[in-house]
Amino acid sequence: MQVCGVSRLFNAVFLKAHCSSSSGAFGLRNPEIMTGSTKAQPSLLFRQLFEKESSTYTYLLADTAHSDRPAVLVDPVDKTAERDVALVEQLGLKLLYVMNTHVHADHVTGTGLLKKKIPGVKSAISRASGAKADIHLDAGDKICFGNLYLEVRSTPGHTEGCVTYVTGEGLEQPYPRMAFTGDALLIRGCGRTDFQRGDASRLYKSVHSQIFTLPKETLIYPAHDYKGHMVSTVGEELKFNTRLTKDEEEFKLIMQNLGLPYPKLMDVAVPSNMLCGFQDPV
Ligand SMILES: N[C@@H](CCC(=O)N[C@@H](CSS)C(=O)NCC(=O)O)C(=O)O
Ligand SMILES: [Fe+2]
To answer: What positions does the domain Metallo-beta-lactamase occupy (predicted)?
Structure first.
């Protein structure tokens, strides 16, 4: 498990400072300073995974240059938990965190099952979601895995507690930044705003202030796609997003008139996801 800079909470592993390369659950707070060594160059392993019934993307990220090969999973699904465990094992990774972008309404999260299957794994979700988890995240927090991290950006509007996870900047590596937008920003679209305290005006402001301000080459990885897209960029969505390129008033009208049926699993998924997927409530 990684410890990053100065901890914000008593057991915090996500912080407002740099990641360090300690090993052990609550190892040295800042070993590169203590030893005088420089930070190891990280190496990002990235996998985009798909669950076809809910058209959900799950993302696996790891720092394979670190001796522990620490990893995180974003938005796992209960139905594909076995697949995710097998992949983590096959790739020789140490899964640290299973994180959700929000309380999903269309599928049960895999976090509870994964916590059962891989001892020591911690679940994380935003504090604003009101859901149970081991770690409650606030805007600006950093979730570290090896010498990589995901920064938390608050992007409410689809739901009250939606966040976007953005890979760290300034790493000396040839990767563009990646934004895991959940349902706040979908490719050429966005999440609906008609339940879970959704608010179109809030969503519009969230996306414009927290996502569209990222560098244009930033890769957009959403939680769902219904049309076969896998990835976009901030630059592409600024030009071609069918909803968020409009002005705010037009956007609100579009969102009021979507006329989508409620997700089939909503009455099961939301209460389960408020309890970390029901499998292992913490
Ligand atoms: N058909 C699916 C649910 C589809 C749906 O409502 N998707 C959500 C994201 S999951 S909360 C959404 O925001 N869609 C926006 C859009 O424009 O499609 C089911 O029944 O499970
Ligand atoms: Fe959603």
So the answer is: 55-224
* Nearest-angstrom CA–CA distance, 41 and 120: 26
Q: What is the pLDDT along the chain (282 residues), one digit of tens a residue?
A: 333 532 343 333 444 333 543 332 222 223 332 333 456 788 999 999 999 999 999 999 999 999 999 999 999 999 999 999 999 999 999 999 999 999 999 999 999 999 999 999 999 999 999 999 999 999 999 999 999 999 999 999 999 999 999 998 655 556 789 999 999 999 999 999 999 999 999 999 999 999 999 999 999 999 999 999 999 999 999 999 999 999 999 999 999 999 999 999 999 999 999 999 976 545
Q: Which of 52, 106, 265, 267 to mutate to test the pocket of ligand 1 (most atoms within 8 A of CB)?
A: 106
**Which residues have C-beta atoms less than 6 Å from ligand 1?**
54, 104-106, 183, 189, 191-192, 224, 226, 260, 263-265
Candidate from 181, 183, 195, 206 with most ligand 1 atoms within 8 A of CB, to mutate: 183
Pairing of strands 70-74, 122-126: unpaired
**Which pair of tokens denotes residue 163?**
């966040």
**Residue boundaries of the structural domains of the chain:** 33-273
Distance CA 14, CA 134 (A): 12
pTM of the predicted protein model: 0.89
Gap between the Cα atoms of 187 and 225, Å rounded:
7
CATH 3.60.15.10 fits 33-273, yes or no: yes
